[in-house]
Amino acid sequence: MEKVNAPKQFKKPKTNVISLERGKIPPQAIDLEEIVLGAMMIDKKGVDEVIDLLHPDAFYKEAHQHIFEALHALFHDGQPTDLKMVSYQLQKQGKLAAAGGDYYLIQLTQKVSSSAHIEFHARIILQKYIQRSLIKISSEIIEEAYDETTDVFDLLDQAESKLYEVTQGNIKKSSEKAQDLVVQAKKKIEEISNREGLSGIPTGFEKLDALTSGWQPSDLIIVAARPGMGKTALTLSMARNIAVGQNIPVAFFSLEMSSVQLITRLISSETGLSSEKLRTGKLETHEWEQLNVKVKGLEKAPLFIDDTPSLSIFDLRAKARRLASQHGIRMIVIDYLQLMTAGSTTKAGNREQEISTISRNLKALAKELDVPVIALSQLSRAVETRGGSKRPLLSDLRESGAIEQDADIVSFIYRPEYYKIEEWDDEEGTPTQGQAEFIVAKHRNGGLENIRLKFIGELGKFDNLESFDFPQELHSKMNDDDSDQIDPSHLPPASEAFGTPISSSGNDDDDFPF
């Protein structure tokens, strides 16, 4: 019987990608690795200088990785790091043979006589490791770029995240002398004096700026409130004051609302046209003109809005670094913290631990970019069940006490009108209509205060309580071509129009919306 040959199975040919490592020796400095490890075993001073600079993976030779792990373990336990103890530690870990045995350890100590210049040598070792890491990352990116199923934007984010991890894990800042720091501080004080006493970014809210001297670089600011209190409205008002009023670049990451919804809110705030009119598009001729004129400043404002949903902390850091390098952003707003994720690569445990990871990384981002980071946060339902004025407390922060710990400023938004409380709990019994309270409950570098602001619900806008704005119902009267003047009899009482006495400072004309 004739033997039937089985049909040949054709394998899909692999993509012809030339590895960057093929035919080349990876960057390395084995001779310096030997010198550094030998110096660490003969001089404790050498250990103190480089133990926080290097890590096991920084060494190219596997035996050297085991030896450094032993040295690190001894240092961590407060034990001597001499030749005998390193040998004992490697034996205890079962890695003495892999490290070359006692004979190799003795050879390392004989290669050096002191720990002089050990930090310089260690930094060269670290540079070689970074080069190897970049080669590896580049090869992975090339392989993934040939895969047609990979989304190009995911590929970009992954590339940025990997490069960022290399930077974070290996580029460490050394300590500075007091003399240099004093010079920097004096220079900063001179700059502050030229900016009328504000060392940070002015928010546009006078009493808040007086308390904080503006939002300070490297600070993490938490703005927390119950739903419906106006967290987004307040931060949008701040972003508008900073980007439009002072031409300072601001990044706004919105995980809840779309970018078009946010810009529509800003248009409403800027033009004085209600959100309802903008949603329906039913505008009069003069209102269209008003819209076109008033949005010109907003169009030119350096405000960057990102509405990526379920943004991870690693993606946020990559995007923020890109905006900082390309556009020089000086403030970051995140709306809101509980909608973020820690990322799939991080084993954060339960939700509380995940929020802790996010808050720590936000503080690290603020320090790295040297900009204030404002993160909005939800409060627990304990506020609703509590009696009395229902003012929020630090204990009401939702899901994690780490938020309170990591933040430089923790603040709350409180509107009694939301709970149908008609009078403030002060001696005068001031009406609460159209007013809100910005509560600074924690301030690492300053005092605490409850600051009252004006809230204009139909415009989704916060403003200084003393500032003067015409009521919305008068807009049509002021833009009526058939009337040059407004009949005083048509004006409502000031208490009804504003909920507070009108300021007589003499500068009210500057705040007219037209």
From TrEMBL:
InterPro entries: AAA+_ATPase, DNA_heli_DnaB-like_N_sf, DNA_helicase_DnaB, DNA_helicase_DnaB-like_C, DNA_helicase_DnaB-like_N, DNA_helicase_N/primase_C, P-loop_NTPase. GO terms for cellular component: cytosol; primosome complex. Its EC number is 5.6.2.3. It is an enzyme of class 5 (isomerase). One of its GO terms (molecular function) is ATP binding. PROSITE patterns: SF4_HELICASE. Keywords: ATP-binding, DNA replication, DNA-binding, Helicase, Hydrolase, Isomerase, Nucleotide-binding, Primosome. It catalyses: ATP + H2O = ADP + phosphate + H(+). Residues 474-514 are annotated as: Disordered. GO terms for biological process: DNA replication, synthesis of primer. It comes from the Bacteria. Residues 194-469 form the SF4 helicase domain. Pfam families: DnaB, DnaB_C. Belongs to the helicase family. DnaB subfamily. The main replicative DNA helicase, it participates in initiation and elongation during chromosome replication. Travels ahead of the DNA replisome, separating dsDNA into templates for DNA synthesis. A processive ATP-dependent 5'-3' DNA helicase it has DNA-dependent ATPase activity. This is Replicative DNA helicase. It comes from Mesonia hippocampi.
